[in-house]
Amino acid sequence: MKKSTKMLSLMFALLLLALPALAQVADSKANAGLVTTATLKSAASLLQQPRADAAFVAALNQGDEVQVKQMGLSWCLAVSGDKEGYVASQLLTFSEVTEAETFAVVSANNGRLTLREKDSTKSKALGKYNNGSIVAVIEKGDPFTLVRVDGKEGYLLSDHLTLTGARESSGTGVISWPDDPKRVRNIKMRWSGKTGNNVIMNVKTGNEFVLLAQGDDWSEIELLGKVGFMMTKYLLMDTQPAPSEQAPLEPGATQAPSLFGTVIPSQATLAPVQTAPGASQAPAATPIPQVTPAPTREPGEYITDPGELEPIDFGD
């Protein structure tokens, strides 16, 4: 009898520890397929990857509407007609707010914020968003700000949001285990560049990321609609140019220029990306230094089982 009781207690404890992971999976499934409408400020190119030298997918014109499937401060995953690809975030507008306040990043004291149907903490909850979640600002207010995310429009507490404009990226890469790149592990993404009770989510190796800022120990990245920090040694940067196979244009049609100039056709050696007049060149990706085998691993910075996930507090 005592043995059975201990087993039940252990199973119950493991279930409690796994609840945040189950909630994260449930949120991802619930938000899958949901989109947010944005308008192009100027002509651009829809690209196959979130980088300036990626393959051309479709031409976008000023005033065109796209459906954003995944928010990003540097690149947004969007759909135009039957085409899907990435467009530079600074070319998108969601409302009439200033460019410096186009986006907001959830930064709640307890790690998660509730999206409300109305501007009241007693209003219906439309969803919960972890710190680092990127949302589009529709109307800034006090104490609530009206936002759009995952195809939903609602209110978030303004004191727990960090307003920001679009940002430049510094390249792309893949999350990787240093001494065995093929090994699948879960790496912690945090909302500040230090260890502690600040976990946004756990990300499996093999997931692609966009680099925002590189540091010796910690680097700022965005992926899966969130922005945060991860230990630099787990980030393997792309050092080769992306394939840029030019899509054929219809007779008489011309390709709309992107923020980064004309898309470069496929060739053995890619020339430097040209920029449109007046546009700034996105900084070139700087390869992250090679990590030596069997590095010193900080306790708690990786997990082997969902049951080891750190709990996240709920609330507004």
List the helices and strands and how they pair.
Layout: H1 2-31, E1 36-40, E2 44-47, E3 56-60, E4 65-70, E5 75-80, E6 83-88, E7 92-93, E8 103-106, E9 112-116, E10 125-130, E11 134-139, E12 144-149, E13 152-157, E14 161-164, E15 172-175, E16 186-190, E17 199-204, E18 208-213, E19 218-223, E20 226-231, E21 235-237, E22 302-303
Antiparallel strand pairs: 1-4, 1-7, 2-3, 4-5, 5-6, 8-11, 8-14, 9-10, 11-12, 12-13, 15-18, 15-21, 16-17, 16-22, 18-19, 19-20
Q: What do you see in this structure?
A:
With 316 residues, the protein is mainly beta. It has one helix and 22 strands. The strands form six sheets. The chain has a five-stranded antiparallel beta sheet, with no helix packed on it. The C terminus is likely disordered.
- Secondary structural class: mainly beta
For this structure, the CATH topology of the domain at 36-164 is SH3 type barrels
Contiguous helical run count: 1
Strand content is 25-35%
At the first level of CATH, the class of the domain at 36-164 is: Mainly Beta
User: Average pLDDT across residues?
Assistant: 78
CATH architecture title of the domain at 36-164: Roll
The shape is globular
Give the strand order of the largest sheet, numbering strands 1, 2, ... along the chain: 6-5-4-1-7
Distance, first to last CA: 43 Å
> Could you list the spans in which at least 5 consecutive residues all have pLDDT below 50?
16-32, 244-300, 302-316
